[in-house]
């Protein structure tokens, strides 16, 4: 990472202490009563780490031992020579603020319509965005759009005049496609012990569109997600991912994750999906080139056509604005950012929380460990034992989280299990703890309370837990 905002540490914000951040004092939780015992004790944790594995090494040899606001933005320590140089070139492009016309430090190619001027503008500190940007700041949450039906590859049909995203910024002389605001409604709930909580449901209001906005559009809000550790996830063998899939729930545990299969533009084939909130992108190459194109209006050889093509404000065809060398460097950068080490692994409350995590069957989707295969040309992420806490599969998360917009094989209720590594450093790096695909959860407990569908049983289990066990679970999540 290059640029980061240095702000003071924010332990005071509600929920941050609950995430068990480094530097925040956590009250001792004593004594720990026995956990609710209605979980199936026979359900084996899927892919439990080998006995004796060092769980601090979340990213294997790519693990970084920093706990400050730069923790997500470090080159993996096992990079050297040309690989490290390429990472640094990618870092510069990831941090660069693009502009319509080149000037010192600002590469050309932005727009005509876009969301943000820099990758890092949304992936702040190589971490996540916020649904509530400060006044005058650009959004790091975007709205994906489609109409009913798909093209021959399963891509949702674009909305006439608007394409597949609502670009809410534009260069001088061009109109943004539209703007949107988010309003939240609070719904009260309580744990079985009577402790109250409140969950906020977002509503999106699209306005000021440059053309009348058509009816019947499917809208999927998505916030920028952390970008470290992704090369390790790209290096997972397809078989390793499929080993956890159970699409027809043959083991009858109520959890039926499936792999998404998506269109790979480069190979012109259907392949397993890995990236994006619905595992809707097959590779970091395609994810990053799509981000340049859709999020910044910057063309590459993979996506040479401007996102405004076919619209009233289109500009004539032209050569790719980012060349293949820079694109490859950005891909290498997102493949080789190190993963922060776990902290407080031997803390008794954290260990208690880990038992709760398994008992609540969180591990049935948030797979603790996996071994990577080989990623061509990137030995640094190949053959590593990692602790990503994701199975890379999509799951039905219930009506509450549904966007009702299919993305290849992922239906409107399905989302990819979010990796939980680095979760406890979110507040340090990003100065907030807004979680889930649209940032609606204000902290980890709210994220858990939103779990429905296949994960309803885990949510209900947590609702019944005594406070000490809930706190232990949060301490465990904070140690990731
Ligand atoms: C407007 C904010 C925004 C900008 C600018 C942006 N991204 Fe993203 N990024 C997102 C969102 C939102 C997602 C999730 C997309 C989805 O689910 O389809 C994402 C996902 C990703 C992912 C996949 C993360 C994962 O865990 O699967 C990568 C890698 C990524 N972006 C790289 C980039 C790069 C490289 C750039 C600059 C060329 C960039 N992004 C610019 C918002 C942004
Ligand atoms: C059926 C699979 C499944 C189970 C079981 C499950 N999760 Fe999740 N989890 C997901 C998916 C999918 C998401 C992404 C949902 C979204 O963003 O809308 C998620 C998101 C999260 C997030 C937010 C992460 C982020 O970065 O935004 C946290 C925290 C979390 N889960 C913790 C837990 C805990 C703790 C448990 C057990 C009590 C649990 N999960 C059980 C699938 C599951």
Instruction: State the secondary-structure class.
Output: alpha+beta
Instruction: Give the strand tally.
Output: 15
Mean pLDDT across all amino acids: 91
**Poorly predicted ranges:** 4-45
Number of domains: 1
What spatial order of strands do you see in the largest sheet?
4-3-8
Order of helices and strands: EHEHEEEEEEHHEEHHEHEEEEHHHH
Query: Roughly how many Å is the radius of gyration?
Result: 22 Å
User: Helical residue percent?
Assistant: 10-25%
Ligand identities: heme C
Strand share of the residues?
A: 5-15%
Oligomeric description of these chains: single chain
General shape: globular
Largest beta-sheet characterization = 3 strands, antiparallel
Number of helices: 11
Note the gap between the termini: 21 Å
Structure overview:
- The chain has helices at residues 81-95, 119-122, 230-234, 238-242, 284-296, 324-335, 348-359, 426-430, 444-449, 456-464, 467-478; strands at 63-64, 113-114, 141-150, 156-157, 169-170, 179-190, 196-207, 218-223, 261-264, 269-272, 339-340, 370-371, 385-386, 394-396, 414-416.
- The protein is of the alpha+beta class.
- It has one domain (17-478).
- A hairpin with a 5-residue loop joins strand 3 and strand 4.
- Bound molecules: heme C (2 copies).
- One heme C (HEC) is lined by residues 94, 115-116, 119, 121-123, 140, 142, 222-225, 227, 230, 275-277, 280, 284, 287-288, 291-292, 295-296, 330, 334.
């Amino acid at each position: 990472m290059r640029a980061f905002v240095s702000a003071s540490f924010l332990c005071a914000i509600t929920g941050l202490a609950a995430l068990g951040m480094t530097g925040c004092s956590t009250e001792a939780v004593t004594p720990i009563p026995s956990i609710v015992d209605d979980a199936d004790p026979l359900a084996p944790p899927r892919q439990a780490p080998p006995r004796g594995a060092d769980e601090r090494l979340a990213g294997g040899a790519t693990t970084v031992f920093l706990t400050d606001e730069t923790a997500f933005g470090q080159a993996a320590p096992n990079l050297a020579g040309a690989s490290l140089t390429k990472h640094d070139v990618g870092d510069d492009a990831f941090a660069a603020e693009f502009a319509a016309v080149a000037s010192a430090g600002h590469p050309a190619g932005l727009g005509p319509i876009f969301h943000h001027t820099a990758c890092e503008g949304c992936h702040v500190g190589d971490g996540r965005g916020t649904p509530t940007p400060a006044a005058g700041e650009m959004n790091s949450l975007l709205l994906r759009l489609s109409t009913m039906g798909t093209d021959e590859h399963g891509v949702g049909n674009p909305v006439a005049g608007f394409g597949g995203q609502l670009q809410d910024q534009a260069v001088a002389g061009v109109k943004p496609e539209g703007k949107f605001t988010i309003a939240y409604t609070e719904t009260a709930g309580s744990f079985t012990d009577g402790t109250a909580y409140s969950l906020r449901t977002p509503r999106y209001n699209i306005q000021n569109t440059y053309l009348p906005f058509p009816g019947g559009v499917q809208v999927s809000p998505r916030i920028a997600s952390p970008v470290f550790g992704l090369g390790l996830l790209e290096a997972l063998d397809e078989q390793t991912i499929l080993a956890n899939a159970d699409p027809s729930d043959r083991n009858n545990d109520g959890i039926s994750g499936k792999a998404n299969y998506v269109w790979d533009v480069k190979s012109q084939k259907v392949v397993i999906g890995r990236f994006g909130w619905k595992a809707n992108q097959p590779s970091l190459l395609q994810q990053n080139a799509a981000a340049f194109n859709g999020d910044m209006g910057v063309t590459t050889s993979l996506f040479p056509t401007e996102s405004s093509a076919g619209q009233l404000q289109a500009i004539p065809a032209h050569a790719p604005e980012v060349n293949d060398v820079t694109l490859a460097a950005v891909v290498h950068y997102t493949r080789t950012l190190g993963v922060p080490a776990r902290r407080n692994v031997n803390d008794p409350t954290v260990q208690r929380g880990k038992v709760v995590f398994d008992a609540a069957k969180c591990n049935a989707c948030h797979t603790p460990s996996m071994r990577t295969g080989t990623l061509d040309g990137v030995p640094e992420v190949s053959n590593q034992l990692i602790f990503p806490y994701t199975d890379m599969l999509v799951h039905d998360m219930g009506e509450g989280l549904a966007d009702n917009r299919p993305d290849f094989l992922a239906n409107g209720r399905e989302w990819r299990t979010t990796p939980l590594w680095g979760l406890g450093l979110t507040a340090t790096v990003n100065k907030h703890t807004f979680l889930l695909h649209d940032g609606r959860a204000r902290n980890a407990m709210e994220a858990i309370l939103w779990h429905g569908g296949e994960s309803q049983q885990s949510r209900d289990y947590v609702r019944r837990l005594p406070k000490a066990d809930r706190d232990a679970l949060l301490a465990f999540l904070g140690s990731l």
